[in-house]
Structures are given as structure tokens and as C-alpha cells.
Amino acid sequence: MVERLGVAVVGGGFMGGVHAEVLTADPRVDLRWVVDRDERVGTDLATRFGARVTTTLDEALADDTVRLVVVATPAATHEPIAAQVIAAGRNVLVEKPLVLSTGHARQLAAAARERGVVLAHGGNFVYAPKFVRAHELAADREALGTVHSVRVAFRTSGPDTDWFRSKATAGGGALTDLGWHAVELCRWMLGKPAIRAVTACTRQLSAAGDVEDQGVVLIEFADGAIGQCDVSWACPGGEQLTVEVIGTEGLVTADLWQGMGVEAYTNTKFGAVWEPNQGWLRPEWEWIRNSGYVHQDRQVVDAVLDGRPTTHTPDDAVAVVETLEAAYRSAADGRKVEMNA
Length: 341
Prior knowledge:
There is one protein chain. This protein has helices spanning 14-24, 39-49, 57-61, 78-87, 102-115, 129-138, 141-144, 167-170, 174-189, 287-290, 293-306, 314-333, and strands at 5-10, 29-35, 52-54, 66-71, 91-94, 119-121, 147-155, 195-203, 214-221, 226-232, 240-247, 251-255, 264-266, 279-281, 337-338. With 341 residues, the chain is an alpha/beta fold. It has two domains: 5-124 and 294-311, 3-Layer(aba) Sandwich (Rossmann fold), CATH 3.40.50; 126-285 and 320-338, Dihydrodipicolinate Reductase, domain 2, CATH 3.30.360.10. It has a seven-stranded mixed sheet. Strands 3-2-1-4-5-6 form a six-stranded parallel sheet, sandwiched between helices. It has a two-stranded antiparallel ribbon with strand order 13-14. Helix 4 (78-87) packs parallel to helix 5 and helix 9 (174-189) crosses helix 12. 45% of the residues are buried.
């Protein structure tokens, strides 16, 4: 009998639940622990998936069968937790943002290489099947010619959890939360070229918290292409995530949530549809798979069990952190930030 991969999930909230659902559906995985400082929250998730619960990471790491740890906690806690996991010689998948500073990102990448463990970061949308297909089409230079522009728009009505709106726990607002995905998608669609300069502006619209609700980032790539990332927590009407790649001979566009093939209407409200859930709707289906979580987490399991390289590496995470840091500096100073392209 092949030994299954022991996993611990740190953080029993929404994202911890997403990873637990995806990983327990993989027959190669044994979810052994849920770690959460709030024992009630941890117990709820652990009970759903037949895992043990603990309030300390040390107890989970004392279990020698645990070889992969998933970190799904507030962003400000990612670096110390990931560093502890790597120091213990375990593989780790850290939800986005990997960390909040370029220095910490590079330190974690170096530590993972030294220990010979997998360091993966949560960037599920670059694994989403619809965007993977768009990426394949965008890579056809005969069809598109010289690609000169990429635009990613990611807008929601804002987070449901208060810690997202606190700089102390989240590190930033919409730019940290949604901007991670937007920058990663933008860079990936172009083939991951070096970045020459970043210009950004942000705005806080909500009276709650101390972080931005809206941000626009302009990325100048070393190959001459321009990237635009438009992110917002202040968009009513449901989540929007679109990608547009434009070349001299053609273009590719992809909308994650439109064209799902299901339509519905109600004068009241649908109980099993996220807001907006009234009027004419295009309800999502298999949203976890369509968002790329299944493909992402299975690739991490492949990397741990079989040594296969991941499509998106710690160096890619460093590039995203560095870009977001530059964006915040640009927004604060009102100037373009030059990068070491």
C-alpha cells in the first residue's frame, strides 16, 4: 500500500476549508491536522474532514507523517508560520500573498532551497482552466503578432472578514488581496518578462479599516509591453475577473464568470447563489475547480510526492511581492518606481 501524504491545514476559516475540500478529494492525501488558535473554528473544520485539531503548529509538526502544511491565515502571519514549517523540513503551500515584503519572500525561497522542500504559493487563477486556455492562445505569436498590452480587472464588493481591512493583519487592502492575482495573471500572460517600472494609485472609499478599497497599477515590462491591473473592493453586482491580451495581429479575452452556461431568474432570492442572488443571474458551478484550486493543489501534491516542478515558482512569488511593494511606494509618493529589470 502506498503511503499517503500527511497534510496539516493552518487556519480553519474559509480558505482553509477550500484547501481541505480539494486535498481530501485526492486519494493520495491524508488530512491529519487542522491548526487554529480558535479551537472552536478548528474543530468545525476538522470534524467535517475527519482530521485532528490543535491550537499549536508545534503539535502538528510533531507528527512525522505530516509532510505538507497549508497556510491559510491572515497575511501578516504567513512569514513566521512558513519559516517555522520550512525550518522543520516540511513542504508548504502558503495562501496569497506569500508574504508582505520582498526580503521575506527571498528569505523563504532561499530557506526552502537549502532544506530541499517545496515552497508553493496560492495563485489559483493562473491554474484556472479558462485562463490556462487563454494563456495558450496568447502564446501563439503568429496569431497575435507582437503582444503590447495586457489588462486584468478584478473587482468584488469587498471582503466578508474584518481582518482584511486592517493593515496590521492583512498588510494592505484590495491591492494586496486582489492585486496579487492581477499582477500574477498579467505577468504570466506575457510569458513572465522582467518588469522595468511600476506606477500606481490607490483610494480608500470605505470608512471601515485603514486600507485601500481600490487600486490601479500600470506595469512597464522590459520587452516594451504594458500591463494594467484594475482592482476594487467597491464594485456592486458580483465578482468580476477578466483578462485581455492585445497584439498587433490579434487579441484574446477571457471572463472567468461569464459564459458559465447556466442562467436563472427570480423575483425573490436564490438561497444557493452568492450575492447578487436576485433578478437575472448566471450562477457559478464547480467554482472551486473553475477557479483553479483543484489544479493548483494537485500540482503541489505532485511536487511533494513525485518531485515534479511547479508551474509557478518561488521566484514568481518574489516578482509579485516586489511589484506590489513598488505599487504601494508609487501610490504613496505619486511617482513612477523604477525596477531592476
